[in-house]
Amino acid sequence: QIGWTNLEAATLEAVTITPEKPLNWPLTIYLAGAATAFLLFLKSLLYLGKLYRYGEKRQWRGRTVVLTDQIASPFSFLHLVFWDSRTPLTGPASGEMFAHEDAHIRQGHTLDVLVTELCQIVFWFNPVVHLYRTSLRNVHEYLADAAVLDQTSVGRYGRLLLGLGDQLTAPIPVANHFFHSQLKKRIVMMTKKPSQLSNTWRYGLLLPIVFLLALF
User: pTM for this structure?
Assistant: First the structure.
């Protein structure tokens, strides 16, 4: 009898009830948001890979052009220019659109876009990151427009933008699109006088401050 008593006591001591830990809701929500943003980022890359794989590759003006009928307006990614196969590469309008995308490539805008997309995955909950992403895209368009205006007039290029504005398509987040930002803002920017170099440096110094605020 004493042996059974000792055995029962030892069994009771061995069987311990571990209370369930409460679910960490803030962490769960953050991970769910980050996972969703990552999946959207991955979806964009896979779609670009599909366009490249099935598109016709052609060399034009020192660039690799991917011709496809799956898009309506041109865009660039890394060193590639994706072009609507139904639109000829020759002609004044096509030349200006191509020069726009070529400027995106020469100025390395894809790297900026990829960095902001990765920041958006990590800091998806921060509205500053989304505002900075939109602002940076607009600046990219202004810079590419300025490069085109070295070859043509503001009036001619502005009429091209207005004439092709109805060809807007759903943008791919990781690509630089010809019609990405609002046309009105771009046309207004083209008519403005360039700011002085000192003002440019002053604005440039704000970028690291904005980035640090986004991190916090």
Answer: 0.76
